[in-house]
Every structure is written in C-alpha cells, then in structure tokens.
Write a structure and sequence with these properties.
The chain is of the alpha+beta class. The N and C termini lie far apart (about 55 Å). It has three domains: about 70 residues, SET domain (Beta-clip-like, Beta Complex); about 160 residues, no CATH class; about 170 residues, no CATH class. The strands form six sheets. Strands 11-12-13-14 form a four-stranded antiparallel beta sheet. The protein has a three-stranded antiparallel beta sheet with strand order 3-9-8, with no helix packed on it. Strands 4-6-5 form a three-stranded antiparallel beta sheet.
Amino acid sequence: MCLPYKVVEVAGRGRCVTSVRDIHPNEVLLVDNPILVSPSTKSKAQCLQCCRLVDGSYKCPVCNFPMCNETCASGEIHKLECEVFERVDFEAEVEDVKIADDHYAAILPLRCIRMREKEPENWRIFQSFQSHCKERREANKDLWAYHDEHGVDFARDICEYKEEFSVEELHRMIGIMSVNSLGIELEKGYGEEMGFYPAFSNINHSCLANAKPVKMKDKTVEVRAKTSIKKGEEITFQYVVEIQPTRIRREMLNRKWFFLCSCTRCFDRAECGTFLGALLCQRRHCGGPVLPEQPTDTSSRFSCLECGNTIEYKEAVEIMNEAERNTQGKDPLHHLVEHIERFLQKYEDILHPYNYVMASMKMKLGCLYGNCPEYPLATMTKTMMMRKLQVCEESLVPLAILDEGQVGDNKWKGRLEKEICKIKCLMQIK
C-alpha cells in the first residue's frame, strides 16, 4: 500500500513529513511502533518489563531490580539490560520504592547499546536523529550531571563499556531519546515509559497543527488528519498544550526541543482568533483587544487593535502574571466556585474573555457547576444554568479553533462539550 506521506529534507528546518496526495479529515496517515522503550531516567521502582509500579517484594534473581514476578524477570525487554548486569556481576539496591531512584538512569543507555548490538538497522535510524547535546548541557546543568553520573559513567565503568563508547556517544543516545521520544500512556498503577517511534519522530511541530497523534493501548501510535491536507503540504502536530499563549508556548518549545516556533499562529497577533494572550484596552470607552505588536519579540509593545493605545511589554506580562497568581489565592472561607466567580468579575474588564488565564478559570467553573455537592445539578437555578452554559461556551471557543475536528482525546474540549450538552438538555426539561 502506498503511504500518504513522505519524509523530505528542508533547508533550515531539517526533516519534514509532507503529504503525497490530498488527505481528508480523520484519515489515518501513519501507524508506528516503538523500536526502543525505556523507563524515565528519574523513575520510581517499576517493573523493567511491563512498567507496573512494584513494592519490592519480588526482585529479579539475576540483577536484583524490583520486578512484578518471575515471568517479567525473564521477559525479553528486561533481558536487554539484565544480560549486561549478569556479565559484570552487578546487583541493584533500590532501597525506597516510593521515591525516584537513580538506578533507572542506566536503563536507557544500556538499551541503546543493546539495540546497536542486536538491531543494526534500527540503530542506524535512531542515530540519524538530533540529540541537541550542547543545548541540553547549557539549559539544565543539573540534569546533565545526573545523566553523566548515573547513566554515562555507570555504563562505561560499572558495565565495562568504556573501551567501546565515549562519554559523548552515550550522552548523544540519551539526548536523542530525550528530544525525540513520545510518552507512552499507561494505566493507573504503572510508572513512566517513553518510546522512540522511527516514522512518527520525523513529524514537526506547529501551534496550529493539521494532524494529531492518537496513542493506542498496544503502544502503537496513529497519526490522524484533523483537517483537510493538500498534496505537498507539511504534516504537523502540537508538541505542547494548545491553550498557552505565544510567549509561554514558544519558551516551552525552546526549553524542551531547542527551537523557536515560526508557525502562522506564532506570527499572528490574535493567534488565529483565539486571543489567548490578549488584554482589554483601559482607555475610556474603548475596551478593544490589546495584543503584542510583534508576537515573537519578547520586548514588543502591546497595542489596542481598535484605538491604537499602547502599553509596554513588561507591564502587559505583569498583568497576566499577577492574574495567574490570583488564581491560587483562594480564601478558605469561600467555596472554589465563589473564588472563581470573584476572580472572573475582577478581571472581566482587564483580560480578554478568551485570555488563557480567563479561559482556564472558565473551564474549571463550567465543570464545577452541577458536579460538586455544594452546587448539584438537581438544584441549579435558571441563572446558574445560564452561567454554566456561558462559561463553557466561551472557554470552548479557542479550543475549537486550535483542536479542530473530533480526532482522539482532548481532555478539556471533550469535557466542555459534554457539559454543554448536559446543561442544554436540562434547560429544555425545566
């Protein structure tokens, strides 16, 4: 079967995935399986075969790592590192299963090494991805030192790979996984696991993406189109939570993936109609949306789209930062619903109705009304029902723009749509 995409090299951007034909909404573009899985390098005690959190009552008879049982201890995944531990006569001592243990930092580099030994083609693919070692070292010196001691030095000294792998090579393995892996969704009672998906990892980010990954229970990942995609168009998905404004979103992307996004949404003052980073103009009789004049410039003035009134970047950001702080300042004498209502009333003439802080509080409020003991659905007044509908619909507007279609799960979007349907049905009955 012909694939609907191809991987291409683009100057200045590296690898991109583009469509080779027109693609319809909700069409499955790609199905991928991980060629490498590993627990987090800062993990609590978990089974190295199935990732279930363990209590330490059973330990692998070979390497002494806490495991579920004999079946998991002899599993094919755990065997990768266990054979190394057996060769060097190493036994782990995980003392407290309730806190992160540095022994788990060694699992990732060891599984990378075993992949090179046992699966040379997968290793070739893995090695072709970027690791951003220089940027990672500068960005988080403490994490680099942790990996250096408990991952790199452990593999070279304790596991006797010093002659085969340099410090740089092992850091590069950790970096490739850190930058390109996808978190695997596990059930309650399991730890953390990340996977490297060789085809999926070629897909770039866009803050207004046209595709979305859907994680399956068998650890495969499907990429589905959210919108119509024209032949030759790049296929993208969102790396970060979509509800954040440009200044926060770009900083998050740069901190984790070491690039500054230059997508359509990042260069649009209104963020494609979402207004997530907007204030309201304080000039008398105006109240228009106040937005950064140059959205990707972290020193850009903010100005009103209607009257042109300006405020400095630092002042605008401080208004939003103060609002964020005030979301946490709940008076213990008041219910959370009352706290949120007071907050929204305070900022209704300061922050745009779709501003990310306002949207977040409205989402919470819309889900609290009718779903908590103090405000049960059965006793809600007509005014309360109208208020619930209002805040749900307002907070849904930016989500509907940014996560178009009905592909996969979106925690807040799905919840808000259900709450809107529920309250509309109740209003018809009453």
